Amino acid sequence: MPITHLLARSILMELEQDPAKNFIEEEKLVLIDTDAGTDDAWAIFMCLAAHHDPKIPLKVVGLTCVTGNTAVDNVTVNVTRTLQTVGEANIPIFRGSESALVFAYDIGDDPYHGKDGFGDANLPPVQPTLEAEHAVNGIIQLAELYKGNLTILALGPLTNLATAVRLKPEIKHWIKDLYILGGNHSGK
Fold first, then answer.
1. Considering the domain boundaries, does residue 3 fall inside one?
2. Does residue 42 contact residue 89 with C-beta atoms inside 8 Å?
3. How far is 182 from 69, CA to CA, in rounded Å?
4. Does the residue 98 lie in any domain?
5. Residues 71, 90: contact at Cβ < 8 Å?
6. CA 46, CA 4: separation in Å to the nearest integer?
7. Which of 89, 113, 134, 174 stands 20 to 30 A from 20 (CA)?
8. Which of 177, 179, 174, 176 shows the shortest CA–CA distance to 144?
9. Residue 13's beta-bridge partner residues?
10. What burial class does residue 164 get, using C-beta atoms within 10 Å of its C-beta: 0-12 exposed, 13-18 middle, 19+ buried?
11. Domain Inosine/uridine-preferring nucleoside hydrolase spans what residues (predicted)?
């Protein structure tokens, strides 16, 4: 089941438990941590559709970028392109970790999402619009700002999140929900 469906399901389960809840007051504040290949772009599009729908209590408060499907600089371009596609210019984007913490990440010679993460489609150049802070600091700042109310949707490697927790362990208690898109293709 796609991770965005799990998030929507969580909201619906809350509604079923208490149909009288006013969800406008209890909207999900979502930080998306992504390695922005084509799969993540679709997840971001779905979250942005919810973000713009007044009937859905979801607000995307930031996107953090990490190396994974492609290099982090490609990820920042892909995230910027995704936001520009829907005319969204007010959600902060943070550039994050370039490498893994433990093992080197190798996307191989023929990466699934192409070398640029978007299928090597030769799209027009886009200048990323980034916050000055590193993604790790962005995670810490947003977790503190929305203490107890922040949902993190982790679509890529967990390097940014792991580093943020290492630097400021108390953020573990400030995050309301954490959804992780995790997988393995080689059984290791």
1. no
2. no
3. 13
4. yes
5. no
6. 7
7. 174
8. 174
9. none
10. buried
11. 30-186
Amino acid at 58: L
* 56 Cβ contact list (under 8 Å, min separation 6): 11, 50
Q: How far apart are CA 22 and CA 26, in angstroms?
A: 7
The answer to whether the CB of 168 falls within 8 A of the CB of 133 is no
Token output for 156:
């890529």
What dihedral angle (degrees, nearest 10) is formed by the CA atoms of 105, 111, 115, 116?
-90
Domain range spanning residue 47? 34-56+67-180
pLDDT in tens, 138-167: 999 999 999 999 999 999 999 999 999 999
Check residue 184 and give its pLDDT: 59
What CATH number does residue 78 fall under?
3.90.245.10
Confirm whether 173 is domain-assigned. yes
Residues contacting 122, CB < 8 A, separation 6+: none
- Residue 93, domain member (yes or no): yes
35 contacts 69 by C-beta, under 8 angstroms:
yes
Q: DSSP class of residue 170?
A: G
DSSP tag of 128? -
